[in-house]
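B., you asked whether I could sanity-check this one before it goes into the benchmark set. Here's the sequence:
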Amino acid sequence: MGAISRISDSEWKVMEVIWKSSPSKSQEVIQALEAQEGWKPQTIKTLLARLVKKEALTYTVEGKCYLYSPAISREDAVASETKSFIGRIRLGSLAPILSHLIESKDSLKPEEIEALRNLLQKEGGDE
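And here's what the prediction gave me:
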């Protein structure tokens, strides 16, 4: 698989619906997002088409129904978004980002800080 195109916030919401239940009929996606976001069906259809064009979704046609499936895993999308985000904001070091996350009391729960500490120790070889 090649590079993943950046997924907008609205497209991410569509992907979440499809990651939860795949394959998903277009009507199921429309109903979920109408209720959740208050979006119009045409908006949702446009987002589905964009995601197909970006190769984040695939579809099959069964009769009059379009069935959408993710072409990328949620984990791959998260990894790509994280890499893109870090690339946009970092100034040569990840330390300021990690420092901000740890110092922001609302950002991380104690168990998340502990998991991060364990990961850093493991990666640093200080087990």
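One thing to flag: Strands lie at 24-25, 57-62, 65-70. Otherwise nothing jumped out at me.
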